[in-house]
Structure to design on (149 residues):
């Protein structure tokens, strides 16, 4: 079931990217099925040909199982900390999905710093439970929102 969902999400992502010419980076990384260790850093690195006047919009995507034991997750992306809610106050999952997997995307304000035409993003969770069960994949989506040429 995990593989079927991953394939469906990949096809959706490719379709979405084809329709969105503003996208400059979009990638999901799988999490160990045993659980996400705090020390398991996810790295997202991509080259950019952006000009100095290009503004970038970033989003973090989370794919999780219905068995995820919390309604929220604390994430550190580079030096920024995010408290993201996967469920509402009644426990209803906010994301959409198939079977026991859900996907939700959070717009985030990341401090993206370009070095030699490369942007690097690293992500860890900072939840107390370690390893953190029920997280399937974590993704990054970066797009251009404005260019002043």
């Amino acid at each position: 079931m995990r593989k079927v969902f991953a394939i469906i999400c990949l096809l959706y992502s490719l379709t979405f990217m084809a329709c969105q010419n503003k996208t400059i980076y979009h990638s999901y990384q799988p999490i160990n099925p045993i659980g996400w260790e705090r020390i398991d850093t996810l790295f997202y690195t991509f080259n950019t040909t952006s000009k100095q006047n290009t503004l970038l919009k970033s989003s973090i995507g989370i794919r999780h199982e219905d068995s995820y034991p919390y309604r929220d997750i604390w994430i550190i992306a580079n030096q920024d900390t995010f408290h993201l809610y996967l469920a509402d106050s009644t426990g209803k999952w906010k994301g959409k999905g198939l079977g026991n997997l859900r996907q939700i995307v959070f717009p985030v304000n990341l401090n993206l710093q370009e070095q030699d035409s490369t942007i690097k993003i690293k992500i860890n969770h900072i939840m107390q439970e370690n390893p953190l069960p029920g997280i399937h994949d974590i993704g990054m989506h970066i797009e251009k929102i404005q260019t002043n040429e």
Remarks:
- The radius of gyration is 16 Å.
- The first helix runs from residue 2 to 19.
- Residues 71 and 87 are 5 Å apart (CA to CA).
